[in-house]
Design brief:
By secondary structure, this protein is an alpha/beta fold. The protein has eight helices and eleven strands. Strands 2-1-10-11-9-3-8-4-5-6-7 form an eleven-stranded mixed β-sheet, sandwiched between helices. It holds the Pfam family RibD_C.
Amino acid sequence: MAEPDAGTQLTLLDGAGPVGEERLAQLYAYPPELTRCWVRSNFIASLDGGATAGGKSGDLGGPGDRALFTLMRGNADVVVVGAGTVRVENYGGVQLSVAARQARQARGQAEVPPIAVVSRSGQLDRDMKVFTHTEVPPLILTCGSALAATTTRLGDVATVIDCSNSDPDQVDLRFALAALAGRGLLRVLTEGGPLLHDTLIAAGLLDEICLSIAPALVGGAAHRIASGPDETRMPMRRAHLLADDSGFLYTRYVREA
């Protein structure tokens, strides 16, 4: 099991039994020989569908969820998040073990993937952890109307990218993914928030979802993992289902071809 929760034992619920480190790596590997961005989302939810507890998704997690979180980050070329999630979850840069870095080098990846922040306004404070606690400067995926001001404010601590299409006041996620692909960042991991996730789903840009189900009910007005103005139906195929002794379920679903 990947650090930091090496003592957690995961079991495949198809009769295969306990999963070792090598098999786990295979289960969460990206497709080989990608020619476009493959977008994977990683979320956690309660039994009643809440994406947060106490306002944060991290408060739902356990050791197994944290280990898979680290593993999936270690496999990705880039981690894409919305600006609101960066603020609420107090995001810093990706932190990886020596072993994870060596594995990335062996696959031809950079040692540490950057965080890419989707922000239409570009209004991000320079003292946020995403800028101050990172080995790799983040990417800011913004729109044309905010490009100049965002570059002036953050250009020395981040790479600011115009991801507009015909509307200079909006971030077009297709253009954002094309910009990432142009930098060789094809293995995309998104961690939210719900609005960004919903936009990816509605645009048909999400290839798979890895959803951890926490053995808890939260009630209240907790957000879902996807939240937007319109309903979208996207058929998915189950790739695998894992469990641990703490009662968590770890699912992976891939979009139907």
